[in-house]
Amino acid sequence: MPNATEDLFTPIHKGLRAMIYALSSRLQTNDFADLAATEALARDLETDFAIARSAGCAICILHHHAEDEELSIFPETARAGSPIVNGLIEEHHDLTRRELELGRAAQGILGLTEPAQRIAAGIALNAMANDLVVRYLAHMNREEAELVPWMRERFTDPQMAAMRGAIIGRLPPDRLFAILGWMLPSLNLTELSDLLLAVRPGLPPPALRAVVDLCEARVDPSRWGAVKARVGL
Ligand SMILES: [Fe+2]
Ligand SMILES: [Fe+2]
């Protein structure tokens, strides 16, 4: 038994949780009578996944995350006999359906001319989003609670690192940096320091510079200061 320590889910899920909390906060405080503010909110609920014109749109990131797991992690776990992978994929399909409904509902609000109509539709949009959020959070909890320990018993750390490498290798830079923009500020001092120490030797200087700049811009300044001191940046 490998008894590995890698965790392919929790770090990225931390970023997704932060993004979901931020989106929920914006949704419940949005003034749907204000069309310009509602248009800006709807851009975060863009569902044109294929074009992903705004790679940073929250719904796109949620959708792509599930796709990344299905392409690079779940085939390996299915081959190794995981009893829960099919259930997780079914949950992905349900989440995608709800993401699309939410995006369509947001677009629909933009077509309403009366502020009172938009306010009423905004209440329904919040309820729909709350429903998606509780399911997405429960899904991530399940992956962490059930799949992480299961994989540690069956895969070595290098095998799991290769799965993560496959995900990162397939990500276009705009998607990679959109996800890192949520993930890096969501890691604690030790996690962020360890991550930077792990990736630094393999990154070309411009890529390392881009990651450091992103941390500079997004990570809480006091935590980033402590990380820099620990990593020697
Ligand atoms: Fe998933
Ligand atoms: Fe996940």
The overall average pLDDT, rounded, is: 93
Helix content: over 70%
Question: Main sheet?
Answer: none
Per DSSP, what share of the residues sits in E-state strands of 2 or more residues? under 5%
Count of domains: 2
Please name the fourth-level CATH homologous superfamily of the largest domain. nmb1532 protein domain like
Counted beta strands: 0
Radius of gyration: 19 Å
Task: Please state the structural category.
Answer: mainly alpha
CATH topology of the largest domain: Four Helix Bundle (Hemerythrin (Met), subunit A)
| Ligands | fe (ii) ion
**CATH architecture descriptor text of the largest domain:** Up-down Bundle
Tell me, what's the shape?
globular
Distance between the termini: 37 Å
Spans where pLDDT lies below 50 across 5 or more residues: none
At the first level of CATH, the class of the largest domain is Mainly Alpha
Number of H/I helices:
11
H-E string: HHHHHHHHHHH
